[in-house]
Amino acid sequence: MSETLSTTAARPIRRGRALAWLTLVAGVYLLGLWYIDRDKQILTRLQALALPLCGCVALVLASYGFRHLRWHMLLRAQGQPTGWRAGMLAYLAGFAFTASPGKAGELLRIRYFSRLGVPAQVTLTTFIYERALDLLVITALSLGAAHLIPLFGVLATVVLCLVLALCMVACIATLQRAAIALVAWLPGRPLRRLARFLVDGTTSLRPLLRPGLTAASIACGLAAWLLTSAAFAWLCHALGIVLPWQYALAIYPLAMLIGALSFVPGGVGTTEAAIVLMLAASGADLDTALAAAIGIRLASLWLAVAVGMVAAVVLEARKPAVT
Length: 323
Hints:
The protein is built from 15 helices and no strands. The chain has helices at about 1-10, 10-40, 40-45, 50-75, 85-95, 105-115, 120-140, 150-170, 175-185, 190-200, 210-240, 245-260, 270-280, 285-300, 300-315. α5 (about 85-95) crosses α15, α7 packs across α11 (about 210-240) and α13 crosses α14 (about 285-300). The protein is globular and about 55 Å long. Residues about 1-15 have low confidence and may be disordered.
């Protein structure tokens, strides 16, 4: 399976298809921004907040350091250490297709880590572990604004059940065999391929389920998400939105949780809508809430895409160290 994943990641058509999807999503997003800005002058308002937005960008970039530190620790725990700079570039490249459907971004990360000698299986397992911990962290951070979303209990239950299911499949051989057998009965080749992709990574999680490593990984994830939440709080303050501190730090993670569970690529649209609704429920006027939502997404989601694209271009321009 690892060899299959490496081969799939290396196919130019995969990257071309993902790039086409990303271009489409970005185009629709820009069209929506143009339509909104035509009447509400949101972008003009954000231009006047260049300094706070630059501060938000700095905080988000700093969060990438903690994210990569966690990734670096997880690879070392699996016996696959990488150089810090090379590993950082490979990790950041995975952000390039954040707003495109499917697993294109992670396949791209597999491509570049394989050049560093990291097996595709290890990269995939690390990705699943990282995403599971992120879901737990943002759910915990969301508690401060939980009552703003009537269905928060349902969202939290889904997250906990998903993480528990991953742990059980990773640790119980009978469940692993059942999951593999179930994949064969799924309709459609793309769905079966995605399911095999996830099951293959999940069955290798057990070595990472150690208390010390998990605690350190959660700490890195918490630091990264707090930095991004602080960026959102800063932007809200600059826009004149007065929020209790627990709302200021919890609204963005909760919106990200809603976006993640919506299964929309990158949470595009759903995350922004959640931010606007929660800020409006907190007393902000609609136009200001919309400016905050668009501003933080430009400084987080679309910044990540831009950083990932730059990292991918740099890595493609280099001769692969491992073939």
